[in-house]
Amino acid sequence: MFKIVYNGVKKKLYVLLFILYFCLPCLPLYAQQGISITDLYQLELAGRQVLVLEDRAGKLSIEDIQKPENQALFKSYHKNIFTKPPSNHTTWFKITVANHTSEDVWVNLASVTPWYIDFYARDTEAGKYILKAQTGMMRPSKNKQYPANNFWLPLVEEGRQGFQTFYISVKSERTIELPIYIGTLHALHKQNTQRDFIVAGFMGIMLITFFYNISLYAVVKDKIYLIYSIHLCLVSFGTAYLNSYSFLHWLSFVPFQFWQTYLYVWVPISSVCICLFALSYLELKRNLPAFYYAVVGLMILHGIVFPCLNIFFFRVVHLSIPYQLVSLMTYVICLLAGFILHFRKNKNASYYILGWSFVIFGVFMYLFTVNGFLPLNIITENGLIFGITSEVVLFSFALGDRVNQIRKQNDRLVKEQNALLERKVNERTLELKELNHTKDKLFAIIGHDLKSPIHSLKSLLDLLANQNITIEEFMQFSQNLKNGVEHIHFTLNNLLQWANSQMQGIEVNPQKIDLQLLAQENVELFEEIALKKQLTLSNEILPAQCAWADEDQINLVLRNLISNALKFTPSGGKITLQSRQDSTKNALVVSIKDTGKGIAPEYIAQLFKAHQTTYGTAGEKGTGLGLSLCQDFIVRNAGTLWVESTVGSGSTFYFALPTTLSPMLTI
Questions:
Q1: Count of beta carbons in the 10 Å neighbourhood of residue 21
Q2: 8 Å CB contact between 209 and 393
Q3: How many helices (H) and strands (E) does the chain have?
Q4: Could you tell me where the beta strands, DSSP code E, fall in 390-474?
Q5: Coil, strand, or helix at residue 662?
Q6: How far is residue 310's CA from residue 313's CA, in Å, rounded to a whole number?
Q7: Over the stretch 509-530, which tens digit does the pLDDT of each residue have?
Q8: Neighbours of 261 (CB within 10 A)
Q9: DSSP summary character for residue 470
């Protein structure tokens, strides 16, 4: 029984194999018999209904194509839209169409990527296929068979019966995405009108956004608006170009073939703008230095390397894949930088990644549609337009918000500048008040402190000249006369030095000076005054104690400090000059110590102001300029001046001078 069943199955299997052997070769012919157009508004996307042959050598003629061995090489395409990576190959399409309408049937090669298109139809009189049209992006527009954006070719005239077969060869060095639509002119125009509305709306939005950002740039003067405006302009023309609305023909001063042959001279400009926008909008140099240098490097590749390679070394076909990889890397790095900054709570980054997400979504929708993963419809076909439009609108809001941020920042800066200006005005007002006070003080000094001694001297000399006193009587007043002249000289010298310093006319002439010798000269100068007040004035500065400074200015400092010590030390007191080396600061510290009445802490801060003066223990009155001059001269000589004092015990004034030539002294 099992043997009978086995034999029955075996016979049926032979019959099935026999049928498959003879019928399978006919199935493709039956499946690919042709496209029937039965309605005026019927539009067929014929990607899966045409046969394709890849001519790798690019040498097959229409006669070669007719040979049986080449006819056997035609294969059905597996996607609705034909795609091919960049190459020098020629692709042949075999299209079989039957027209059952009252109008001619045309084919629309709806893409701008084909450079060369050769169209062949059968001539019934000659009985063979002949070249009917030569068109494509690298050929003149006048070669087009119909004045449309894409390449429309006539297939079957009205009234012709049966299926007609046509051959189209396509060649391009670019990546080819080629939807093939077949239908009457009514159907093709309906589709084209729909596309016109979408592209026109897109261009309108882009145009409005462009002028909006240009206006913002004119007002705000922020370069990011100019960069984004250029980007808008380029992406508008680029997207329209991909949708078969080429504006390159308008640039008649440049041969159209240039734009195609040197594609990577002008296309990367858009990528450069994308990089510049990311650098500026995300502030990558400050926020993400590593990403900053990466984006700058990619920008150099786009803006310099690829154009040079395209001009001097490589054709478009060789650069297409590398350029696509670098572009992909650019978008990934910019988007990654946006995500990192978003997680760091950067508000600009949130707008950035959201805007780019729309673009990337549109790009993927376009790629999935082209590769047959999504059905072709008005949404998927224009996914790139919708994504870019969403990105543009979002970035426009973001850049508008940036204006508000700039306005707030400017308001804050104005307030800070006003506060700073007000503070400077107040400081200047105080300076002017102080100068007025000093001016009044100077007039008082000149009018009283100098006038009185000079008047006494003049009166005494008049008495002597008129012989109203004798020489002996004049000599009795000589000591007072000498003291008066010394006071006038000291006061006048301080006045002249102070006035000169206020006019910034003092020059520092540093030299190596011996402080012990300089101090001794001043001690001897004041010995008589010290004896008169019964004070001990001693110079305990060790010999060869040297510093780098201006000798005349330090001499005036010593003279004023010793004079003040004598003035404020009561009879029986002591004034001592000492010095010590400060090796940590390479300085010589000189001190003038007295056993006077001391200075209250609240008055110490006022000591070095120009108009501060008090009376000495014997009623001595100064000009109020001495300590101010001392402070000024010590600072000019790269030193410091300070005081330590205890009320009732005395005061010690210190000044430190450099023991080596300070750079400050050589300016």
A1: 9
A2: yes
A3: 24, 20
A4: none
A5: coil
A6: 6
A7: 889 999 999 889 888 878 888 8
A8: 16
A9: -
- For 411-439, the pLDDT digits (tens) are 777 787 888 888 888 888 887 776 676 56
Distance, in Å, from the CA atom of 181 to the CA atom of 146, rounded to the nearest integer, reads: 15
**Which pLDDT belongs to residue 4?**
44
SS (H, E, C) 506-561: CCCCCEEEEHHHHHHHHHHHCHHHHHHCCCEEEECCCCCCEEEECHHHHHHHHHHH
Provide the 3-class DSSP secondary structure of residue 111. coil
Please tell me the distance from the alpha carbon of residue 43 to that of residue 190, in angstroms, as a whole number.
10
Distance CA 606, CA 609 (A): 6
Assessment of whether the complete model's pTM goes beyond 0.70: no
| 288 class by beta-carbon count within 10 Å (0-12 exposed, 13-18 middle, 19+ buried) | buried
Question: Of the candidates 78, 58, 141, 51, which has an alpha carbon nearest to the alpha carbon of residue 317?
Answer: 58
Measuring CA to CA, which residue among 612, 616, 619, 626 is closest to residue 596?
616
Tokens, residue 223: 């370069």
Neighbours of 252 (CB within 10 A): 8
Residue 471: burial class (beta carbons within 10 Å; 0-12, 13-18, 19+): exposed
pLDDT attached to residue 487:
61
b/e 296-310 (16+ beta carbons within 10 angstroms → b): eebbebbbebbbebb
* Selection from 379, 383, 402, 268 nearest residue 330 by Cα: 268
Element (H, E) at 13: helix 2-23
Residue 135 · residue 144 · CB < 8 Å: yes
Q: Report the alpha-carbon distance of residue 477 to residue 649 in Å, rounded.
A: 36
Pair of tokens at residue 166: 């046509």
Determine the longest span between alpha carbons in the chain, in angstroms. 178
How far apart are alpha carbons 348 and 354 in whole angstroms? 10
* Side-by-side strand order, sheet with 587-594: 536-539, 574-582, 587-594, 650-658, 640-646
Bridge partners (DSSP) of residue 594 are: 575
Residue type, 189: H
- Using CA atoms, how far apart are residues 187 and 152, in angstroms rounded to an integer? 12
